[in-house]
């Protein structure tokens, strides 16, 4: 998740550019949904509460939508700073710190090997390295290409690519046998990551947001996006990184206390 404080600082440095409150609000909604999803996951999968298992099964189909919203906005926000490469490198080390913490805290069966932080950090680095090239590509062309790539590769972790209900191409099983390319979306049979967001398809959605975000420096972003609508969710959006880092320990602490109550299961 992006360093929102740095985004705000870069916005203030920009000449007279007001804050885009709609991005904060939409990102905040995505973070809010993420908190509940992770709470249900911990309830059902780790603490073995039947209610949690039922809730995670019910809400699992919605996860790609609020996660996708967050990733898309993170791509758009890349146009609010000139330090994407630096931010990506910082986030990369933070992501693998999370990997170490989850390994020792919950064990190898629930470790986060390549989650949303890992994917976002590499996407930021790639975006920073390709800034000059992307600047030469028309906004709508770049956005359209990456949306198509996102759709086509959305099922790659399942062993195939294609267009839903129209085209399917099964990928060679050998691509998945080594287990070394999980970060690309080619997980091996024994691969485990309790939070898994491979570069394919999610990097393409991030870049689609990056191209759409070109409207910001071009001063063509919709005017209503600069108005405040939902202050509660805007708070979550502005502090998404710190919320991501602390919400799971808080959830575990609460569920641990609940588990001590006699008769609760």
Would you kindly provide a written description of the structure presented here, covering whatever features stand out?
The chain is mostly helical. It has one domain (4-10, 19-259). It has helices spanning 4-13, 21-46, 50-59, 63-77, 84-106, 116-129, 131-135, 139-153, 174-177, 199-212, 231-238, 240-259, and strands spanning 160-163, 167-170. The longest helix has 26 residues, at 21-46. It is globular, with a radius of gyration of 19 Å.
Give the SSE map.
Layout: H1 4-13, H2 21-46, H3 50-59, H4 63-77, H5 84-106, H6 116-129, H7 131-135, H8 139-153, E1 160-163, E2 167-170, H9 174-177, H10 199-212, H11 231-238, H12 240-259
Antiparallel strand pairs: 1-2
Helix pairs in contact: 2-3, 2-4, 2-11, 2-12, 4-6, 4-10, 5-6, 6-10, 8-10
Mean pLDDT over all positions: 89
Query: Low-confidence parts lasting 5 or more residues at pLDDT below 50?
Result: 11-15
Q: What summary fits the major beta sheet?
A: 2 strands, antiparallel
Measured between the Cα atoms of the first and last residue, the distance is 33 Å
Tell me the strand order in the biggest sheet. 1-2
Q: What is the number of beta strands?
A: 2
Question: Summarize this, please?
Answer:
By secondary structure, this protein is mainly alpha-helical. The chain is 62% helix and 3% strand. The protein is built from 12 helices and 2 strands, in the order H-H-H-H-H-H-H-H-E-E-H-H-H-H.
